[in-house]
Amino acid sequence: MGKMTVLKNGFYADADENTFTPLPIVPQDGDDPRELYASFLVKHMPLADPVEGVLREIEEAARTEGIPIVGRLEGSILKILTMLHGRRAMRILDIGTAIGYSAIWLAAALGPGGTVTTIELDPERAQRARRYIERAGFADRVELLEGDAFDLIPTLGTYDLIFQDVMKHVYFGSDPELALSLLRLTVQHLASAGVLMIDNALCGNGILDPGAHGASNQLAGVQALNNALGRDPAFRSVILPVRDGLWLAQRVA
């Protein structure tokens, strides 16, 4: 499989085939009135500066440049779930940094001494993420690793909480088995009673309406992942139907 180079406006190029594929970007805010109301309330409960200002800047950059981020509502959910896991969540792994949005939300939930390790494939986005993370005041608690998650994760230890946000990346378009491979690899690095969160469980609503964007290996991979995680007795799990669907799973065995 060729390495992927991320370009602007949500387009990706395959370095081997030199092909370009537009990917649907899930809006930061959904169109469900209930979700819009929840987002409205969350946006009126600002975080302390400099975090608030940096997050708003990232949100605007994501809108204008077509960069996928989880958005304010889901970011707030990530933070609250991390804190509800207890201050035991001292080690967090964030797979799919983009420009640092989710890493900042996760870092904001950490207690003293906690750390976030975040992984990004694209060098340009990784560089931008480092700047945003530093400006948010979290350079001392966020370690950004640049490279392929499949290469990097085996070199890491175990984590109390893992957030995975890469399933719709065109990297996973070559083989639907990659989604299951990453799930298996991730679970190997999840601590006992650890929490696994996975974004895009609905794959741009492709899970609910397979004809919406046409067949793809990304969709097939997410379908396989959903079936595997939903039936795994080692986890208590549920999909939160927010935005593009958020898996919440706690390891019980």
Please characterize this protein's 3D structure.
This protein is α/β, with parallel strands linked by helices and 253 residues long. The chain is built from eight helices and ten strands. Strands 6-5-4-7-8-10-9 form a seven-stranded mixed β-sheet, with helices on both faces. Strands 1-2-3 form a three-stranded antiparallel β-sheet, with no helix packed on it. α3 packs parallel to α4 and α7 packs across α8. It is globular, with a radius of gyration of 17 Å. The two termini are 34 Å apart.
Question: How many helix segments?
Answer: 8
Mean pLDDT equals 87
Q: Record the strand order, biggest sheet.
A: 6-5-4-7-8-10-9
The rough form would be described as: globular
Radius of gyration: 17 Å
Counting DSSP E segments of at least 2 residues, the number of strands comes to: 10
How would you sum up the major sheet? 7 strands, mixed
Residue stretches low in confidence (pLDDT < 50, at least 5 long) are 1-21
Structural class: alpha/beta
The span between the termini is 34 Å
Please report which band the strand proportion falls in: under 5%, 5-15%, 15-25%, 25-35%, 35-45% or over 45%: 15-25%
Helix content: 25-40%
Q: How would you spell out the order of helices and strands? A: EEEHHHEHEHEHEHEHEE
